[in-house]
Known about the structure:
The protein is an alpha/beta fold. The chain is 45% helix and 17% strand. The site of the ligand O=C(O)c1ccccc1NCC(=O)[C@H](O)[C@H](O)COP(=O)(O)O has 18 residues, from strand 10 and helix 11.
Amino acid sequence: MAADILDRIVAHKKDEVAACRTQTPLSVLKDQARTKTANRRSFYEALARPADQVRIIAEIKRASPSKGDISADLDPAGLAQAYERGGAAALSVLTDRAFFKGGPADLLAARNACSLPVLRKDFVISDYQIYEAAAWDADAVLLIVRILSKQQLSEFSGLCNELGIDALVEVHTESDLAAAMDVGAAVIGINNRNLASFDTDIETAMSLSAKLGAGQIAVAASGISSRKDIEQNLKAGISRFLIGESLVTADDPEKFLTRLIGG
Length: 263
Ligand SMILES: O=C(O)c1ccccc1NCC(=O)[C@H](O)[C@H](O)COP(=O)(O)O
């Protein structure tokens, strides 16, 4: 059932990109994207330093296929500011409308409200979406190994470099990780959620992170909901996290984030 949803998401993205191309041709988008290079905030640097502290990518997520509505009416600008005050290293903003109720307006509102680098969290299946992200002033995009061919992963990583945008390359298995290593990914998101079943197991990132090379940043993603989860990961050598649902649903996201970081 969950695997069907992933197939539906990817099919939907193909239709969405085709429709967008008719409204804004790639040539126009390329020009827009290239004018934004000077505005970029470094997602990589925000995660890399300080090396000895917990660094969290705080997510703006209204809904999801596994949970339905999470916080459908959230205020992206207010939440971005709360996350910044709480010590977030970066933001992740869902820009998919059909399955996550997000959109580019959320990304723009969140980025304009704070000084943090922002990840466009979406299902990238075309170079068009990377130009789009750059034109919207995103600082990073998500590349999910599971939905890309080796050639696409390599081409899209190269395009990110060319546009001065960072890539968070998402893996879930050892073979995904090998593919991420092959393209020289610098920031690797290890998704604890199996996108084929939606089962979430925080041991996934802890065991796969041991296989990363020196200089690669491991980010544990999905299912992190307490300081205890963070401490367990710290013992396994992971200190970077991508956290959505537990932050968005917290009574006080700023305080909760500070507590997760260990402040
Ligand atoms: O969250 C889902 O249900 C989902 C389903 C299919 C593909 C992706 C999905 N989530 C995207 C994410 O990667 C998470 O939003 C992110 O890792 C944060 O997870 P969480 O802290 O568990 O909200």
